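Follow-up to my post from last week.
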Amino acid sequence: EAQVTQNPRYLITVTGKKLTVTCSQNMNHEYMSWYRQDPGLGLRQIYYSMNVEVTDKGDVPEGYKVSRKEKRNFPLILESPSPNQTSLYFCASSNSPGWGVRGYTFGSGTRLTVV
Amino acid sequence: EDQVTQSPEALRLQEGESSSLNCSYTVSGLRGLFWYRQDPGKGPEFLFTLYSAGEEKEKERLKATLTKKESFLHITAPKPEDSATYLCAVLPPFSSGSARQLTFGSGTQLTVLP
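User reply:
Got it. Predicted complex:
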């Protein structure tokens, strides 16, 4: 089954404790992206990657890091999480550059709480 | 800056009561407009892609239409299982500084009462 898999689904952590949210896709997509979703603000892009070793900032990159060492994986790293990073996070992929007819395929989300 | 505005923010309908959701955008020459459905706590699920003004797409009780400045998602005789948040997103032209980003609206939360 074609899918984007994120782990963990739920995470509660303390301020300053480094964490990684994993994302993997099995569709051989070149383009991958991370979004955060907050009430009233919609989906905002954090980082995206056009291909292996090619990443760029989205609208809200502060406090996040990413890497793309393999085509299928695109982990999101929070080196020193803070409470304002409490959010619902989504990983997405696409067969850019045409975006295909579906735009993105989304993962199921990771609900992160930083206390 | 590209803007995508969805209205209303929330909509409550009785089962069978048809209505429309609106997505207006300021992007000129967009390459595509996407509609997604999102259930609580889940990732958005693709519904439609529209590429040019005048285009229409249908799926069951949903029909999406596109003009040069907005898109509508028409829901005909909705059922409770249609309750969800509906998101639209636009893909700007390659010439845009945000050409690599899908820009999402904030969504319309639809509740269909039995």
